[in-house]
Amino acid sequence: MTTATPLLEIRNATKVYGGGFLQSGSRVVALQNFSMTIPEKPAVITTIAGESGSGKTTLANAILGFINLTAGQIFYRGQDITTLTGQDATNYRREVQAVFQDPYEVYNPFYRVKHIYDMVIAHLDLGYTKSQAREVIEQSLRVVGLRGEEVLEKYPHQLSGGQRQRVMVARAYMMNPKLIIADEPVSAVDASLRAMILDVMLKLRDDLGVSFLYITHDLSTAYQIGDDIFVLYQGSIAERGRTVDVIERPHHPYVQMLINSVPVPDPAVKWGAVLEGVADESLRATVESGCRFYPRCPSRMDRCLQAMPPLYAVDGHEQQAACYLYHK
Ligand code: ADP
Ligand code: MG
Q1: Domains in the chain, please, with CATH?
Q2: Could you say which ligand is closest to the alpha carbon of residue 53?
């Protein structure tokens, strides 16, 4: 039991979109009562898994300060991120970096790739000479298997998707971050590059103490690299725990359904197969107060409609499932 201040702590984060007086469209609870802790040490890879629309990007955007929560708080090194100012705010923006699925949008098409790195060097303000700066850039590119001459003088559209993704990982790495929010970082790249980027994540965790929030709809990769996992269903945690425990011994009926419904021997393969494209926005609004999984649940009970089930402890180490089946 440690009492050290966590690196990141999220308490009861809730985000509701729409439903306001002047807003058209319906109200969407994108994230509900989400809590999570990432320790200062050791560095860990925490997976947020869920099908499309389950609230993963909403969570990432809240941590990065791109959106405000409707309720709940996010603390970085013990400080509410909405109250950070001055040097604390600057540190937060450097120490918490983001890598997205298709980074093309974050590039300015009119600047060569080199410009991205020059901006980082200027931002870090460490007084590097030109050749020192070049060496720092080359070193960060080596981490992701690229060489300066391959990418630096090119424009973003001249890079392959995989090169663009690696350039962004290298950029994040150069900032010497404590935490990288990686929102579907390998969803748009081919299998060999996916393995390579996942390998870089493991290396950064183990050699440099960088933690990751790894967001994915593909559980086979979570199974390969994730320490802890949170499985979201329509904005709420269905199950959490160590990744191996949750995938090998799922307890929530939703998570069991995902893993058991496809007759493939390798549990990791099943996840990948099932999570792709199973968006059920139509069912989102059908449960007002109770468990959101009720309409699809093979184990549903009357009480499930009365209130959203809290997280109950189940078998694994700190494993919990939001299901009344585990109420004792
Ligand atoms: P994921 O990343 O898991 O696919 P998101 O966090 O993007 O899920 O979305 C969660 C839910 O919130 C979805 O129902 C989505 O339609 C809704 N949503 C996301 N962003 C907005 C927005 N800016 N305005 C309204 N609804 C949104
Ligand atoms: Mg998303």
Answers
A1: 8-108+174-326 (3.40.50.300)
A2: 1
